[in-house]
Design brief:
This protein is of the alpha+beta class and about 400 residues long. The protein contains 14 helices and five strands. The chain has three domains: about 140 residues, no CATH class; about 80 residues, Single alpha-helices involved in coiled-coils or other helix-helix interfaces (Up-down Bundle); about 130 residues, Histidine kinase-like ATPase, C-terminal domain (Heat Shock Protein 90). A five-stranded mixed beta sheet has the order 1-2-3-5-4, with helices on one face. Pfam families: DUF7134 (PF23539), HATPase_c (PF02518), HisKA_3 (PF07730).
Length: about 400
């Protein structure tokens, strides 16, 4: 960007931040253009006969009328009265109308309509129209009916322009406020969804950790009872306690930072059943196939046993993705589930060839669904990566990678 353009933009930004300074620049520009034309321009014989010759008094009065524009945004009615009074004095003393005071009158009419409410702007419009007609009647030169109507139409048109611009500014302000409210509501919904999903994750992990602690308690009691008569069995029980304790500790580290909300007793009693995992994937796919959706499962690599938390998260991820497929993919859609095991991680892919992308957008707009928020929360909880989006060739895809190491 050239220094000239950069300087021009800086000057425009400075004027936008200081409206009175911008109006002062406008008034000075009118005077710089109009006063030389008033005193140095050629006058016709009719003007010389009917109007008083320009002098210092007219110059001062024209400058005062034009300078009143500095107040037009803060005090538009006052500005209109000042300009109208100046025009009346110029007409009373017989001076010919000049460019600065004529343009200042139109700007004052526009300012009343653009910067005041309807009652005040209507009052200002009536005053401006009545004063303008009084000036036309006192004008020493004759004018045709068409010229008279055209001049009145000009004043009315300037007032209507100001009202329209005021309504347009109010409309855009309302749009900005509405967008800000929607953004705040979207943020609140997302936070509520995260809190709700974290609470559900916390309950699931609580069941996993509680199971490990129960196993440790049973093994410790058995080791205490047999330590004297069967030291080998006691050592085996202690090894089991160590292994289970490490697993439970790993799950507890993952749960740090997950916020839990209160739940009622009935909900707690309903969640005492063991959490499902990838071992229950066949039953899940059978249920999905019963709905009419064709689902295929591929397993690549040597299957390894993930941690209980990853097992639950991967199962819930597949369950949520297939639920979205049932809801949004449409009839005749097909789905694929792939589990890819490596030495370091487990990759879960769920894809379909339906119309899921457009339907999800149409249903939810820009607001992410709680299910998608839950997917991100589950995968992020275990240090994984998640990608959700449309497939090449149509359909929708979900791909998550879970590290198998703690």
């Amino acid at each position: 960007m050239s220094p000239r353009i950069r300087g021009l933009r800086t000057f425009r930004a400075w004027l936008a931040a200081r409206p009175q300074s911008a109006d002062a620049v406008l008034a000075l520009a009118l005077l710089a253009v109009g006063l030389p034309e008033l005193f140095l321009g050629d006058r016709s014989a009719v003007e010389a006969r009917l109007f008083t010759a320009p002098d210092a008094r007219q110059g001062v009065l024209v400058a005062a009328v034009t300078s009143a524009l500095v107040l037009r945004q803060r005090f538009p009615l006052t500005t209109l009265w000042i300009v109208l009074a100046g025009e009346c004095l110029l007409s009373l003393w017989g001076y010919v109308p000049s460019v600065p005071d004529s343009v200042a009158y139109m700007i004052a009419v526009y300012s009343v309509a653009a910067h005041r409410a309807l009652a005040h702007s209507a009052l200002g419009g009536v005053v401006a129209l009545v004063g303008f007609n009084a000036l036309l009647l006192a004008f020493p030169m004759r004018m045709t009916l068409l010229e008279y109507l055209t001049n009145n139409a000009l004043v009315v048109g300037v007032w209507v322009l100001g009202r329209n611009l005021r309504m347009r500014r109010a409309y855009f302000t309302e749009l900005e406020d509405r967008a800000a409210r929607l953004e705040r509501a979207r943020g609140s919904d997302a936070r509520a969804a995260r809190i709700e999903e974290r609470s559900r994750i916390a309950r699931e992990l609580h069941d996993v950790v509680a199971h490990h602690v129960s196993v440790m308690t049973v093994q410790a009691g058995a080791a205490r009872r047999i330590i004297d008569r069967d030291p080998g069995g006691a050592r085996e029980a202690m090894s089991t306690i160590e292994e289970v304790g490490r697993t439970a500790l790993s799950e507890m580290r993952r749960i740090v930072g997950v916020l839990r909300t209160e739940r009622d007793g009935q909900a707690a009693r309903g969640e005492l059943a063991p959490q499902p995992g990838l071992g229950d994937l066949g039953e899940l796919l059978d249920h999905v196939r019963e709905t009419g959706l064709s689902v295929q499962l591929w397993i690549e690599g040597e299957a390894r046993t993930p941690s209980p938390g990853v097992d639950v998260a991967a199962f819930r991820l597949i369950q949520e993705a297939l639920t979205n497929t049932l809801k949004h993919a449409g009839p005749q859609a097909r789905a694929w589930v792939r589990l890819r095991y490596t030495a370091e991680d487990l990759t879960v892919e769920i894809e379909d060839d339906g119309r899921g992308t457009a339907t999800i957008v149409a249903d939810n707009g820009d607001k992410p669904g709680h299910g998608l928020v839950g997917m991100y929360e589950r995968v992020a909880l275990y240090g994984g990566e998640l990608r959700i989006g449309p497939r090449v060739g149509g359909g929708f895809g979900v791909r998550a990678r879970f590290p198998l190491s703690a």
